[in-house]
Structures are given as structure tokens and as C-alpha cells.
Amino acid sequence: MSQITVSPSQTQFAAEDSETILSAAIRQGINLPHSCQSGVCGSCAATVVSGDVVQSAEYDDYVLTEEEIAAGTVLLCCTQARGDVVIEMPSYAGHKALTVRTLPARIADIETRGDMAVLTIALPKAPPFVFHSGQYMEILLKDGSRSYSIANAPHESGTLEFHVRLREGGLFSPQLFDGRLKKGSIIRVRGPLGSFYLNEDGAHKPLLLLATGTGFAPIKSILQHLAHTQPNRRVHIYHGARTAAGLYDEAALQQLLAQLPNARYTPVLSNPDEGWTGATGRITEHILNDYKDLSDYEVYACGSTGMVLDCKTALTTQAKLPTNAYFSDAFTAHV
Ligand code: FES
């Protein structure tokens, strides 16, 4: 057993030899910044100040530069401790971070739309559940767990909405489609988790919100939050899908757009249906066409790893977006 100290918040927790430092933190309700948990997104990068660590899993080469590795930067989702370790992670707010809770929840509604289900759950009334727009929950199952972004805004406390794509043979999603889970069923959830959420300090900046597929869920949460708190903020939403069926929540989005006078919306289809007159191809090309200078913007991207990484590279190298103004949550598919 090792003791992990996170600086500068001075948060401390124990980690087993067999678990990554990130899993140990999450297991104990310490919400260190993370997203993919699989060495793809870089959100869990931290610097080892003292102590020994080992790399326990492969990660994608582009996530850390050679300079970062030489400076002691590691990915906590791919690193185990060997003895007591001090790490530096300035992005972790320590005790100010929200408390992670495990809760029973009652299914209030399941609405299926093709291979998509919009799942709404009701939480216990007290104490109120607090989260940031963009965060996700784990749904706890007998044989594991599945993670889904929350699709509604924090002020609508008491219920949570999730967008679940059917994955044949999957651990959770088929139960929403075949009647094993229905209105009134009780499930267990854990959260809020994840460091992808609207940065309230950058409140004056215009926003680009990018999504592919069900990556629209946290973007919807952010839009609802903006409609509630800053309806006049400038925002441009790009939603990429293969066909029009992938734009599965258009009615709710149109309602939100009606409450956001400075919002623009560009749906982009990669495999457009006959008669589609909107944008086609990849969302990256359209953003670069629409914006040459994003130096004063913040960008939030959620969806496929390909889109999240493409947009980061393209917007920071070709459209002057500062690297620290790009926030992302890359989905890795689980059955
Ligand atoms: S790289 Fe560790 S959480 Fe994504």
C-alpha cells in the first residue's frame, strides 16, 4: 500500500500496488481530473515530484511529448505507485472538488429513438445532488459499470438524463431496449465524475461546442446551463453524425436555441441522407472555414477520440486557439 499526496491541494489517499493511481483516487471518491481512463485524452497528466512509479498500461504516443516525459509527467490512469509518491496536479481543486456519491435511483423514463435511448432517472430528494455541466456518472451493475455523461443542467436537480446508444451484447444498454429495465426500476449510480465541465472563470469568452454522436449529451447540459445563467453568451454548436438519424435530439436542441439569442448551430453529416442540404464531411473543416482566429474563444469537444484529437490539433495550430482553452471528453466505446 502506498500513500499518494497530490500537490498543491495536499490531498492524500492510499493506493494498492495492483491499481493505477487514478483508479485508487476515484475508488475513494477523490475526483482527480480525468476522462478516458485509457491513455488517450491526457486529462490525468501529473508530474511526479518524489517517489517511484511504474507505467502499468500503454498509452497513445501523442498524449505526452518527450519533454513532458523527461520532466516527470505521467498519466495517472496508466501509472502505479511503488511506495509513497508525491505528485503535482495544479488543476485539481482539492476539497473544493465536488463530492462523489453512490446513490440509488429510480428510472423515471426511457424513451427509445432508433438505436438511442434517452434515460431519465430520479435521485433521492435529500441531500441535493450537485454536479457541473459536462460531468458524467457511472451506472453500477452486477458485473461492472458503464459511464454516461449527464445531459441536463445542474439546476434541474432531482433528475438526471443520459443518452445511451444500443450496443448489441452490451452490459447495460440492451436492458433499456428489451424491457429488463423499465419505468420504476431501481439502479445504482455513482458520481459526479470527470473534469470536463464548463469553466465558469472564462465566463466572458465566446464558446464553440463540438459533439459527435452521443457526445451531444454533455453539450446539451452545458447549453441548458447557459440558457439558465448566461443566455446572451455567444456560442456555436457543431454536431457531427453519420446520417440525420444521428442528430437524435433536434427537438430539444431547437428549444434551447430559442432561449439563446446569440447561438448558432451547424449540424454536419459524414454520410448525408438524400435531400440533405446542410453541411457535410467532418466538423473540423467547417470550423476552420468559419473561424480563422479563435484566440479569444473556449472550445468544448465531446465524442469520438478521432474528432476530439483532430479538432485539438487543427484549432490550436491553424486557428490560434490557446491549448489551455480546449476542453475535451473523448468517448471510448464499451459494449
Ligand atoms: S489519459 Fe488518463 S484519463 Fe485520459
Automatic annotation (TrEMBL):
Q: Which Gene3D superfamilies match?
A: 3.10.20.30, Nucleotide-binding domain of ferredoxin-NADP reductase (FNR) module, Translation factors
Q: Which GO terms describe its molecular function?
A: 2 iron, 2 sulfur cluster binding; oxidoreductase activity
Which keywords does the record carry? 2Fe-2S, Iron, Iron-sulfur, Metal-binding, Oxidoreductase
Please give the CDD domains that the UniProt record associates with this protein: fer2, flavin_oxioreductase
What sequence ranges are listed for the domain FAD-binding FR-type?
A: 100-199
The EC number of this protein is 1.17.1.-
Q: According to the lineage, what is the superkingdom?
A: Bacteria
SUPFAM superfamilies of this UniProt entry? 2Fe-2S ferredoxin-like, Ferredoxin reductase-like, C-terminal NADP-linked domain, Riboflavin synthase domain-like
InterPro entries per UniProt:
2Fe-2S_ferredoxin-like_sf, 2Fe-2S_ferredoxin-type, 2Fe2S_fd_BS, Beta-grasp_dom_sf, Cbr1-like_FAD-bd_dom, FAD-bd_FR_type, Flavoprot_Pyr_Nucl_cyt_Rdtase, FNR_nucleotide-bd
Q: Where is the 2Fe-2S ferredoxin-type domain?
A: 2-93
List cofactor names only: [2Fe-2S] cluster; FAD
Quote the PANTHER family the UniProt record gives: NADH OXIDOREDUCTASE HCR, PROTEIN RFBI
Output this protein's name: Oxidoreductase NAD-binding domain protein
